[in-house]
Design goal:
The protein has 192 residues and is mainly α. It has two domains: 4-71, 434 Repressor (Amino-terminal Domain), CATH 1.10.260.40; 82-162, no CATH class. The protein contains twelve helices and no strands. The longest helix has 19 residues, at 53-71. The radius of gyration is 20 Å and the shape is globular.
Length: 192
């Protein structure tokens, strides 16, 4: 199954760059939308293709679901093997559980295979001290592909405990930013 937005673009004889210009978006936004990496396609893109949002969204979601199912098949899935899941419980808690699952593969390749926003995964893996739990979208992905997310949640909690991560509340983060802004003479966003 092809992405319905890509099929529409091709039927209109538009290049990705041409569509990006017409929609007022970057070419990478068009590429990522065609790869299914956004939960919902940008409205500007749909308008540029003269597509109805409420009619197109179910087709886009169906494309993502089918793409994930194909990526999860035994023949093509290099990510979620039972060996990887077994290694989650045996892994040193000092390693982020998602890095254990990737086994050296790139986050972007995973995101392309499973139609997940790279920013979400990158933030969760690289800035784990800001993320108190496994993102809902990741848990939904695990459930959709037939795996139990409880093991991932348990591994993530052990990882945070081992790292002695103290998660900051939004108010604490705001206070830290204010102190840093005063100390370094930085202006906060939205403040003149």
């Amino acid at each position: 199954m092809e992405n319905p937005l890509k099929l529409t673009r091709l039927s209109l004889d538009l290049t990705q760059e041409g569509l990006a210009k017409k929609a007022g978006l970057s070419k990478s936004s068009v590429i990522r939308t065609e790869q299914g990496l956004y939960q919902t396609p940008p409205r500007q893109l749909l308008q540029a293709l003269n597509l109805n949002y409420s009619k197109t969204l179910p087709l886009y979601t169906a494309f993502q679901t089918l793409h994930r199912a194909l990526s999860n098949s035994q023949a093509s899935n290099p990510y979620f093997t039972w060996q990887n899941f077994a290694s989650l419980s045996d892994a040193l808690p000092r390693r982020h559980p998602f890095e254990v699952l990737l086994e050296g593969r790139s986050i972007l390749d995973f995101c392309k295979a499973f139609c997940v926003t790279p920013n979400l995964i990158t933030r969760w893996v690289k800035k784990y001290w800001l993320v108190a739990s496994v993102p809902t979208l990741v848990l939904d992905l695990f459930e959709e592909t037939g795996y139990d997310g409880v093991l991932l949640i348990d591994a993530y909690n052990r990882f945070l405990y081992e790292k002695k991560v103290t998660l900051l509340t939004p108010q604490e983060r705001k206070e830290i930013r204010e102190v840093q802004a005063r100390r370094f003479g930085l202006k906060e966003k939205g403040v003149a």
